[in-house]
Amino acid sequence: MKTYCKATRFFSIVNLVKINTYRIGFIGFGHMAKIICRAIIRCKLVARSQILFMRRDPRKIHEDEQAFGITSTSLETLVSKSDIILLCVRPAQAEAILKPMAQLEMKSKMLISILAGARLSYFEKFLRSTPVIRAMPNVASEVGEGMTILTPGSDAGREFQSLANLIFNSMGNTIELSEEHMDMATGMAASGPAYVFSLIDAIARTGERGGIPYEKSLKITAQTFLGAARILLQGGGVSVEDLISQIAVPNGTTEAGLKVMRELEIPTRLQSVIAAAAQRSQVLSEEFL
Ligand SMILES: NC(=O)c1ccc[n+]([C@@H]2O[C@H](COP(=O)([O-])OP(=O)(O)OC[C@H]3O[C@@H](n4cnc5c(N)ncnc54)[C@H](OP(=O)(O)O)[C@@H]3O)[C@@H](O)[C@H]2O)c1
Description:
The chain is α/β, with parallel strands linked by helices. Helix content is 54%, strand content 12%. The chain has helices at residues 6-14, 31-42, 58-68, 75-81, 95-101, 120-127, 158-169, 182-190, 192-209, 214-234, 240-247, 253-263, 266-288; strands at 24-27, 51-54, 71-72, 84-87, 110-113, 132-136, 146-152, 172-176.
């Protein structure tokens, strides 16, 4: 597998903190925690001996210890021996962790929550002045192209923010947003890959109907999305409109397609898709409180 390690590049730019002196504890070690842990190990952010984890299933604890070369422990030990605690349980499982955590010594601890829909105020209820950062990674983190939205709580200082950036830059890109924008960003980035898969599939099926085998058609489309995204991410000061007009020469193929896109109001319809997801995220966040 291709190795990704964007955090090293980020570190050389920001160079604010030396993360390799910190100890990291994962509370919950399921799908998302494993992606984060793999990235931390791959990028050598800290040594394996500085990583602890906890989960409930004894059989899986043993498997994970073997697979990752890290040690599992109790909540008490994890909290006392970790500087950065990553809360990676499901939202409904959080209270069972946060209640006992509230009884432990949390001085100089930093908490990163990846729980969808759990607002900063939820953690303050249990942990009061413990610095908290909300992180919302997406599935592309698994291939080093994740988009993680970071929302620091009021007690999260610059050093903690740099550490969180380093961790999530090891599996893609990060953007910092205030909490009021988290629901919209959830619709865009957390749900976003599903919409992109759906669009890619629709285009690939068109190729298939035109006689190109589906697998080839899928590759053509996925690479086209990736290439277009790379151009935008690399910036270069060219606007989206200018990029489009560079391809869409008068009476050409692109212009013919763009005309139909406009007639079908595809951009407006896509805005409605994202707005629906954002609205659902807001409802779920309110229910969670
Ligand atoms: N998956 C995504 O794409 C994604 C994206 C962004 C954010 N998130 C957020 O990430 C969080 C984790 O999602 P996931 O998909 O990784 O879930 P998951 O695979 O179900 O993992 C949950 C983990 O929490 C552990 N756990 C639950 N209760 C526990 C307790 N009382 N003590 C110790 N460990 C406990 C489970 O351990 P056992 O299995 O051993 O019981 C399991 O290892 C969720 O809050 C979700 O909102 C997920």
